[in-house]
Amino acid sequence: MRIIYFDIDSLRPDHLGCYGYDRPTSPTIDSIAQDGVRFDRYYCASSPCVPSRSCLMSGRFGIRNGMLSNHGAGAQFNINAQAYGGPYPDSEMFPRQLKANGYDPVCFSNFADRHYATWFMCGWSEFHSPNMKCGAETAEEVNAKVLPWLQEHATREDYYLHINYWDTHRCYKMDASLAERFDDYPVTQSWPDDDAIAAQQGLTGPFTPHGQFKNDESTYPLMPGSISNRQDFEKLITGYDTSISYVDSHIKEVLDELDRQGVLDEAVIIISSDHGDSFGEHGIYSDHVNVDECIHRIPLIIRWPGLTVPDSCSSAFMYNVDYAPTICDLLDMPLPKEWDGKSYKKNVMSEDDEGREFLVWDSGLYTVQRAVRTKTHLYIRNYDSWEFNNWESEELYDMLDDPYQTRNIAHEHSEIVQKCRGIMDDWVAEQMAKPHGCPQDPLEAVLRERGLKN
């Protein structure tokens, strides 16, 4: 079995054609979805970049693996290690689990360099840092390393190939002429309109309307200097969509090489991301600073020949901590006992639509927040707003009627707030009671580092 995993940074599913988007951003990705299964309610358990990938690779929640931030007190990776011989098998990392069971995991990514995340390198048979640009490299530069590898190794048996593209992470640096493909496709998303943008002009903090660039001056042709009106917003959206299109074309290069080698039809193709980005939600544009739905909801597309039902969709609630258990289960590998994730093998096979009853997720890089997502609502507990001036201590949103989270209804629905508080507190207690976790909730460690908790 040959498995290719495309890890596309900062990718919102609602900007992909296969998730209903009406601009031609992703023809290659859409073609994979047509042959596989699309997961519609798949979320990262912690954000942003480092916490999310720690959940993906460890199969454990950030509250247990120590990672709720990109650096500092909330970025102390915890693994149940022996004095000699590496981690205990029951708390194994995903690449090591693959390797221990006969697969060669191979990675092309500058993620470890970008964030000094040495734990991310554990277990790979081959780990390739494409260059020294630490996440500023283009998809073309990544493929300059990936394609020669495929030319030599594509026909090998039993490998797992992880390819990481960064172009969809701000800032959008590709040639502005690539945006011409959208000239006949206007931005049809009606929110935020000019009134909503005008109401956001007094917000403070990075990535707010006037926190985009110093002095509101952008050196990137595809990005406005500020978000002062609807025209600025549409320019930013087109820049983001262009970056997705750029990555999509380089995914096609990889698939074309697999096809030339005669192995594409039988290869497993998986496409996902670490987190999404805000485009107006809570007044944030083109970054990921909080626990909003648009940050934690991520795409997951799996084409598994012989298993997936073409062009199918699962609406099961899933985390990215469930990814490693699901793949290992599909490969008939044992699941480490200390993984928090659950296998959703049946969902990949479209046999049913089982999922979690609720999700709890968190973030600790900019804001310090934890959230509960039910099937209908998103509850947010805000411990530290950092430099932002538009957060309340508790927020509640009706995600069916208000998907952009424009109206906090916490004061109107105390019974829902109380229920979500209980879910969150019980979940935290459950995680902290598990063996071999962190000695303290890393969220609290971040607050202590900031002088907000004794």
TrEMBL record:
PANTHER family listed in its UniProt record: SULFATASE, SULFATASE N-TERMINAL DOMAIN-CONTAINING PROTEIN
Species assigned in the record: Rubellicoccus peritrichatus
Protein name: Sulfatase
Listed InterPro entries: Alkaline_phosphatase_core_sf, GAG_Ulvan_Degrading_Sulfatases, Sulfatase_N
Residue ranges constituting the Sulfatase N-terminal domain according to the UniProt record: 4-332
Pfam hit, one: Sulfatase
